[in-house]
Design goal:
The complex is a heterodimer of chains A (about 180) and B (about 140). Chain A is of the alpha+beta class. Chain A has helices at about 20-35, 75, 105-120, 135-140, 165-180; strands spanning about 5, 45-50, 60-65, 85-95, 125-130, 145, 155-160. With about 140 residues, chain B is mostly helical. Classes of the chains: A alpha+beta (about 180), B mainly alpha (about 140).
């Protein structure tokens, strides 16, 4: 498989997509394109294989957000920059179950984190937040996402990854490459 | 009377213009790739590897610059059938359109937890994260 990850396109085949979760299937089939092109509330990236470059095998959706500084508890405000906190929301990430276990999830999270770094370089962003299903929280934790406390039991688990940690990963990658 | 031994006149030579050093390029090719290079050179009527590499570089450079500008590279057949070039490395240079902005609903406790993490020292990257960034 030669997988490419790029922005979702209108002519992409999404009807056959099945990750085993109906809300995630439905988002891709009914809302992803509209949200990206018409109402601009999220950009969806599709993983496709070279042999069938229109068939979506997996996807993730990103958006930016920010938290107004005055919403933070007073005792933490001093440690934060004197501005609203800009962040990236990894809103969804799903792999078609017929292609699970082939490293697509890893490839997509890697791409999402690289986009996060590029956005951080271009317009600034402090962290990436994801809403993880409770049974997937462990998978995100492997990449260093930390659970936020206070998520309602019925809601997805909000998880946090600092952009500085991603940068460190990139620099450890560079230094290990230089040593080789 | 002229001297028996001609003395050489001192001639001011022009200062040597430094020439850019040419780099050597060596690649280990699999037999199939080597054969592909030979076939392409024959098709393009090229004799030297240098010419081959120079043209390949020009083509690659053009593709990178087009993708950097957000342009897609498309081939169109005589019947109008279009194919878009998808080349993973080229996708890396494509510009990201600014991501849209959304509002997130936070509980007070989540905001406190977020503030605590964001104002603290960043965690060390995990092995999986390092591997992801290496891809």
């Amino acid at each position: 498989m030669a997988v490419t990850i790029r922005r979702l396109e209108e002519s992409d085949e999404v009807e056959g997509f099945d990750c085993g979760d109906e809300p995630l299937n439905n988002y891709l089939k009914r809302h992803a394109w509209t949200n990206q092109q018409k109402v601009s509330i999220g950009v969806t990236y599709a993983a496709v294989d070279e042999s069938a470059p229109r068939t979506v095998l997996g996807y993730f959706t990103l958006a930016t957000s920010s938290v107004p500084r005055d919403q933070f508890p007073q005792k933490y405000v001093r440690g934060l920059p004197p501005y609203d906190l800009p962040l990236i929301l990894l809103a969804r990430l799903a792999v078609d179950k017929r292609f699970s276990g082939r490293g697509l999830g890893h490839a997509m999270i890697a791409e999402a984190l690289k986009i996060t770094l590029r956005v951080a370089d271009e317009v600034g962003c402090r962290c990436i937040i994801t809403d993880a299903y409770p049974d997937k929280a462990g998978w995100y934790a492997r990449y260093g996402f930390l659970p936020l406390e206070g998520t309602a039991a019925t809601s997805p688990q909000k998880m946090f990854l600092d952009v500085r940690t991603i940068r460190r990963a990139l620099s450890s990658e560079s230094s290990s490459a230089e040593r080789k | 009377m002229p001297p028996a031994v001609k003395s050489k006149k001192a001639v001011a030579l022009p200062a040597k213009v430094p020439t850019a050093r040419k780099s050597k390029f060596q690649a280990d090719l699999a037999p199939s790739e080597d054969s592909m290079v030979r076939i392409l050179k024959a098709e393009l009527q090229m004799t030297s590897n240098t010419d081959f590499l120079t043209d390949a570089l020009a083509l690659f450079r053009w593709a990178v610059s087009e993708r950097k500008r957000g342009h897609r590279i498309v081939s169109e057949s005589s019947t109008g059938e279009r194919k878009i070039l998808l080349f993973p490395r080229l996708e890396r240079v494509a510009p990201e359109v600014t991501l849209p902005h959304v509002d997130i609903r936070w509980t007070d406790k989540e905001l406190e937890s977020l503030a605590e993490l964001a104002s603290g020292q960043p965690a060390d990257p995990t092995d999986a994260l390092i591997r992801a960034m290496r891809q």
